[in-house]
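User:
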Amino acid sequence: MRLDRTGQAEAFDAIGDRYDEAFPHKEGQVASAEWLVKSLPAGSRVLDLGCGTGIPTASRLAEGGLEVVGIDLSDKMVALAQGHVPTGTFHRADIADLRPGGPRDLGRFDAVAAFFALLMLPRAEIPLALRTVHHLLVPGGLFALSMVEADVDDFSIPFIGSTIRVSGYLREELREVVEAAGFDIVEESSYSYAPSSVDVPPEVQIFLRCRRRS
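Assistant: Predicted structure:
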C-alpha cells in the first residue's frame, strides 16, 4: 500500500498551538483520558497516537502517574507536546512505522489513545492502523478511540487556515471495523461539537472505549 501524507504534517506544522484555541472544549478526550488513568496502575505505559500539542491527553495521562509516549506526523506538534509534557517521550513518526515488522519499535503498551488520529488516514489504511494498535497492546490492553461520524474517505476540508484530508464512518460501520480488528467495545459515547474556528464545521464526535482481545 502506498502511503500518501502529502500536506498533512505541513498543515499541522502551520497550525501549531492555534489548534488548542480552535478546539478549546475537549470533554470527550478528557473523559476518555480519565477512564485510562482510573483503569490503569501507576507506571503503566500509554501510547498517544497523534499526540498533537499534548493537551489535554498526554498531559492528563502523565499527571495521572502513567508513562506517556506520543507520536505525531508534525515536528511542530511533537515540539509543543514535549514542552507541555516534559516527563513524556515524543517522536515524529507515522502509525504505519509501528506496524508489525515496521521500521520503528517502541515496545508494547498497556493502553493506546487515538483521538482523531485515524481520521487523518484514507479508509483503506484504517483497518491496518487498528491492527497495528492491536499489535502494540499487551493482551487485555485498553484502547481509547475517537472519530468524527461522517461517511467520507480521504476528503479535503478547510481547517484553521490550511487544508487537510479526512476519513470517517457512520457509527455502526465504525463499530464493525473496530471489532473486526480484535477489540471488544466496552463503552460508547458521542458529543455534538462546534469548534470556535469559523472554517471548521460542526461535527458529531464518537468515543469508543475498547479492550484488546487476547
